[in-house]
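Sequence design from tokenized structure. All designs in this work follow the same two-part layout: the structure record, then the generated sequence. An example of the structure record is given first.
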């Protein structure tokens, strides 16, 4: 599974990018969604790479994210993070009784911004395995 976190705000966005973020359900800054790494989703992420951070999330970080930040659709039920992580291969988050997005805090120790003149990458774009460190700082 891939985790996509919106880093940029809502001001001065291109209409196409705003629509794509809205359809992914990451409408506010520091909200995140889980997507499957299909070719369509990967091409969409390349279009959004200047506004989001994305990468492959491991099971331990995913379980911690669900445990701390998942909101149940039915307020009366409790969340079993282990069962949800195991069921994500076959079902979506909404089918498992959890809202399909996560609201996160701003990262502790700040965000590494892009360096001047193209030196260094910063947090935007494809972070591969470093997305796990970013998510842990945002929980």
């Amino acid at each position: 599974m891939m985790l996509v976190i919106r880093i940029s705000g809502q001001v001065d966005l291109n209409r196409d990018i705003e629509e794509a973020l809205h359809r992914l359900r990451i409408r506010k800054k520091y909200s995140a969604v889980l997507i499957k790494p299909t070719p369509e989703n990967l091409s969409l992420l390349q279009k959004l790479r200047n506004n989001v951070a994305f990468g492959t999330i491991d099971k331990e970080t995913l379980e911690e994210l669900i445990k701390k930040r998942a909101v149940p659709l039915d307020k009366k039920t409790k969340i079993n993070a282990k069962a949800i992580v195991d069921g994500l291969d076959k079902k979506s988050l909404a089918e498992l009784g959890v809202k399909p997005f996560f609201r996160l805090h701003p990262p502790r120790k700040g965000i590494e911004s892009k360096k001047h003149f193209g030196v260094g990458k910063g947090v935007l774009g494809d972070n591969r395995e470093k997305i796990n460190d970013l998510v842990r700082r945002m929980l």
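Strands lie at 2-6, 31-35, 52-56, 102-103, 125-128. We note this feature because it recurs in several other targets discussed in the main text.
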